[in-house]
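Please fill in the sequence for the structure shown.

STRUCTURE ENCODING:
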């Protein structure tokens, strides 16, 4: 369970005790390794000075307002972002509704009205590619000058690379959509997940192949169609199961609608969960059409055996190297 974080969903909800604070600003979609470096530095600065550690993010994504045709499908909801930020020690998050009024603020108006007057910011920490204000006319140098004018420090945190690859939300989206969930997890410092309600299936799995839990994803970035090693979490009880998940159209049964179906490797006792989180750990194979239901069932059991073996290997590695795992997670 994530630590508690205080969330404001508009400037009207911001109280006088929001500051003084150290603050980072951004979309933070996915809260990936690059974001986490900035957030950890925010927490360091805040703890050194006795301030609060804060973040400002936007909903909807600004691209939905200024360039809706180019707006990306997101890795995380605003609520999920807040939970991930809390894991890094952030005390409070402002989810700022992004509409024409905010979009039209000049960099100076944003710095004076939002940062200084409303949030009582004492330090702003951002990445080197940070842009803000009307038509993204402000950059980090503009932010520095405005900070000198309005009484806050500016710190630019260097970008993060993984094996020569620059970490960004757009790169992580590309990896997930191409099925490279293991590499995406390295850049996220966690598995990519889908979350949503459990919905009725077509009744075919339990009767003819294996019983599955069917997830209705809520607009997140979807992995490429195929079969994955996963871990499934009951969001109400916190129960976890090793699992194998198919993302696809069920071609053996002539399916036309995309489905996310998880087979729990340890089985399910009691009532089925109402809401799930499915974490994608490794891709096993492409989805394909089988000549018969019996052939499909045989393949599912093979997939389950490979997934069990993968989970066992990971469990043994974690047991041998707990300190390394804690440092990397």
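FILLED IN BY: designer on duty
SEQUENCE:
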């Amino acid at each position: 369970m994530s630590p508690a974080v205080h969330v404001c969903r508009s400037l009207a909800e911001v109280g006088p005790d929001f500051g003084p604070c150290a603050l980072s600003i951004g979309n933070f979609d996915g809260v990936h390794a690059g974001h986490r470096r900035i957030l950890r530095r925010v927490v360091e600065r805040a703890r050194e000075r006795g301030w609060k550690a804060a973040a400002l993010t936007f909903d909807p994504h600004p691209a939905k307002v200024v360039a809706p045709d180019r707006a990306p499908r997101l890795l995380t909801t605003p609520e999920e972002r807040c939970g991930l930020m809390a894991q890094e020690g952030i005390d409070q998050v402002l989810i700022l509704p992004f509409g024409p009024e905010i979009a039209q603020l000049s960099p100076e108006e944003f710095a004076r009205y939002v940062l200084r007057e409303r949030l009582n910011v004492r330090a702003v920490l951002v990445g080197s590619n940070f842009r803000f204000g009307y038509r993204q006319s402000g950059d980090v140098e503009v932010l520095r000058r405005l900070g000198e004018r309005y009484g806050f420090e500016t710190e630019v945190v260097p970008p993060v690379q993984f094996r020569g690859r620059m970490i960004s939300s757009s790169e992580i989206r590309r990896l997930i959509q191409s099925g490279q969930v293991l590499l995406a997890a390295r850049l996220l410092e966690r598995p990519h997940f889908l979350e949503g309600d459990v919905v009725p299936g077509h009744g075919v799995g339990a009767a003819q192949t294996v019983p599955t839990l069917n997830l209705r994803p809520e607009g997140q970035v979807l992995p490429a169609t195929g079969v994955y090693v996963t871990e499934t979490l009951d969001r109400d009880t916190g129960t976890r199961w090793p699992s194998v998940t198919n993302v696809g159209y069920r071609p053996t049964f002539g399916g036309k609608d995309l489905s996310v179906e998880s087979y729990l490797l340890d089985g399910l006792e009691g009532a089925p969960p109402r809401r799930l989180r499915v974490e994608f750990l490794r891709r096993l194979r492409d989805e394909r059409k089988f000549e018969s239901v019996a052939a499909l069932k045989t393949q599912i059991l093979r997939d389950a055996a490979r997934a069990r073996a993968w989970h066992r290997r990971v469990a043994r590695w974690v047991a041998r190297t707990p300190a390394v795992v804690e440092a990397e997670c």
